[in-house]
Amino acid sequence: MARHDAPLLLVLLLSGCAEPQSTFMSRLAEDCTAGDQAACHLLRAPPGASAFSSLADTQSRSRKLVEEDLEAMIRGMAQAYEAGRLRGEGSR
Length: 92
Known about the structure:
Blueprint: H1 5-17, H2 24-33, H3 37-44, H4 53-82
């Protein structure tokens, strides 16, 4: 072994003795215990379920509501046009 390899060997030995990093799941459990509701939600999710599935559902519902509102506005404008309000024939 060469002289310049000794520091590298020492670093490798010390890093092997270091305390292991916590895993993602153990960190989630710690956060949930500390009161982080998002972490608890992720822990309760069934295996294989996407953590973003509820976000996608929310976005889908929001889009549906916007589409329904848009359709209602279009119907209202068509009724107003038929009644003459948009052509200037309504009451003034």
